[in-house]
Predict the 3D structure of the following.
Amino acid sequence: MSAVPLLKVRDVSKFYGSRIGCRNVSFELYPGEVLAVVGESGSGKTTLLSCLSTRLMPSSGMIEYHMRDGQYRDLAHMGEAARRFLMRTDWGFVHQNPADGLRMTVSAGANVGERLMAVGDRHYGNIRASASDWLRRVEIGEDRIDDQPRAFSGGMRQRLQIARNLVTSPRLVFMDEPTGGLDVSVQARLLDLVRGLVHDLGLAAIIVTHDLAVARLLSHRMMVMKDGAVIEQGLTDRVLDDPREPYTQLLVSSILQV
Ligand SMILES: Nc1ncnc2c1ncn2[C@@H]1O[C@H](COP(=O)(O)OP(=O)(O)OP(=O)(O)O)[C@@H](O)[C@H]1O
Ligand SMILES: [Mg+2]
């Protein structure tokens, strides 16, 4: 891993009126590192992910991103055009509900190809070849390239959403409960796929999940949130095998009973 953080997050808070979304969150994320954010419903995971990915403006705090040109940029003070460019190229965002991250009424091939066009690829043959290659990588038959995602199963849609996000070789991918709506056997295959791709591509990722097994499988490091704050963070194996906070101990022991 490189010595320079990709993302520097300091004291990020987000309030919805008087309600706390998240508060005083600080961490650094390095290239190639996978960070899991866990915690019960309402603990602030999605709020934090939305702030980090510039979908929401934090109430206070600073988020700096290491651009490809080697400079750090403060995301809060980045222009709209630069922000949109980052979202389409350097970053991926995998939504819990694939319909939120796909265009349901254009073909699977176009869903993948669209991202390539956004980064300037104009050669139809190349775009179609890359789309077809990515469908194969996410285990969608190449004969489905002209089908619309609404004709796909939930698991296929999620794999298509992943292909659409990874085709531009992003450096950082945000995922909000990527296996949330899927049944257990489909979840396991998808997790294997995500793990392989993240590893092969050297991606950095921030994965929100309430499932500690997902955190164990995918992440190097994890943060545990409660009432909007990070109450414990560290290497995933350390946090899960030797949790220090009583709340984390409770979370860990409650999955052991399942
Ligand atoms: N748009 C909003 N307006 C007002 N309050 C909000 C809004 N979005 C989230 N909140 C509040 O912020 C807190 C954190 O919510 P958030 O959605 O980040 O939790 P979460 O950890 O993602 O939960 P879940 O696991 O259920 O998705 C909650 O108290 C929630 O009610
Ligand atoms: Mg959420």
Q: What stands out?
A: The pocket of magnesium ion (ligand 2) is lined by residues 45-46 (CB under 6 Å). The CA atoms of residues 92 and 173 lie 4 Å apart. Residues 96-169 form one domain. The first helix runs from residue 45 to 52.
